[in-house]
Amino acid sequence: MKIGIFAFLNATFFNFKHLENKKTMRSKIFFSIMIVALLTFSGCSLEDEENFHFVALPITSVELPESFDLNETYEIKVTYQRASDCTFFEGFDIVSEDTTTRNVAVIGSELSDSGNCNEVLEEVETSFNFIVLYNEIYLFKFYTGRDENDVATYLEIEVPVN
Length: 162
Prior knowledge:
This protein has one helix at 2-41; strands at 52-57, 59-63, 73-84, 87-98, 101-111, 119-131, 138-146, 152-159. The longest helix has 40 residues, at 2-41. Helix content is 25%, strand content 47%. It has two domains: 1-43; 52-159, no CATH class. Strands 1, 4, 5, 7 and 8 form a five-stranded mixed sheet that branches. It has a three-stranded antiparallel sheet with strand order 2-3-6, with no helix packed on it. The chain is α+β, with helices and mostly antiparallel strands.
């Protein structure tokens, strides 16, 4: 009789744990859903305005090699002008105008809502890597700003490929 009771108690215990695991799993799922709902409804409002905008920064000088070798990578150094302490470097916008023509602009972010910006007129050097993929002369057009008629101006440099 003891064997039968022992077997009955084990079976009951096993079934009880099995039910307890289902309750735990339901609790975990419920808790996860609540966390997701909380994060979804307490996030940033889509109506908030951004406090910055992107600007093209004028390039003042460029360091390029005299010529390129096909399939090689070159570091191209660019110096640009930072107008205020509320302007920050974000990267480059390099657009292929043609197979071997590249328009290059330095992109910065400028704080919109800060009234405490100070003019700095600082020249900053940065660089990007360029891979030579074509065996033709490359034409680079580096954005240098705008003229008196508000037309974009460029520093144009041709680099032959050996």
